[in-house]
Amino acid sequence: MVLGRSTEATAPDALRAVFAEFIATFLFVFIGVGSCIAHSKLSDGPLEAAGLVCIAIAHGLAIAVTVAATANISGGHVNPAVTFGLAVGGYITLVRAAFYWIAQLLGATLAAYLLKAIIITTGLSMPIHGLGAGVSVTGGLILETVLTFALVFVVYATAVDVLDYEHCHVLNRRSFGDQLYTVMPLGSRYIDITMSRYRRSSEIVHKSLMKRLARSVRKAHLEVFRRNSAHDITLRGTG
């Protein structure tokens, strides 16, 4: 990990990056949680398969668009967990990571308050995250572990360890969204998806271990690929 310098707090590029993370996280939470609220307004019954797919697609497209919009400014983290993982890997400094976290949490909080203000007049309530009916804490923890591993693996595979193929720059921005709306139908049946750290920050210690495991597996995978592929592999930071 790299500590960084205090001057980063006032550097123009750092301030732009922090503001980009604020905007991106705000939009992601506003669209994602807003899609849940919209579904509850359209359907009075329990969550059905069609509604779950719509919510998953909304989350996936939201993260894909926000990452694409901010990748060249801040790295397009849009998630405190991603920022933490990249800080541990030394791709960004701890100073910048701290400011990213503040911006992300503020953006998510603002989105939640605005959504709450909007739905006050409709009589609806904010979505509540928790274990599904009949799901134990152990079961929920196992599922969260697997899905968090998938998230961080995709981040490292598409944004940090990049294969030098001509089409990679097209696929990378979509991979985040594709991964999210792929796992949501699985996880939402048993638990409310909490891979975004601002939605369930109490599990950060456990999830940090999964992030490090995902990074290690990805690096091991790259070493094998280097020995068996004629293509060159370059490592790029996103910070």
UniProtKB/TrEMBL annotation:
Pfam families, sorted: MIP
Cell compartment(s), UniProt: Endomembrane system
Keywords: Membrane, Repeat, Transmembrane, Transmembrane helix, Transport
Gene Ontology annotations for the cellular component aspect, listed alphabetically: cytoplasm; endomembrane system; membrane
GO molecular-function terms, A-Z: water channel activity
GO biological process assignments: one-carbon compound transport
InterPro entries, per the entry: Aquaporin-like (IPR023271), Aquaporin_transptr (IPR034294), MIP (IPR000425), MIP_CS (IPR022357)
PROSITE patterns in the record: MIP (PS00221)
Presence of keyword Nucleus: no
Keyword Transmembrane helix in record: yes
Membrane topology summary: Multi-pass membrane protein
Major subcellular site: membrane
SUPFAM superfamilies per the UniProt record, alphabetical: Aquaporin-like
Top-level taxon of the source organism: Eukaryota
Membrane-crossing segments per the record: 14-37, 49-69, 81-103, 110-129, 141-163
Family indicated by similarity: Belongs to the MIP/aquaporin (TC 1.A.8) family.
Name assigned to this protein: Uncharacterized protein
Species in which this protein is naturally found: Marchantia polymorpha subsp. ruderalis
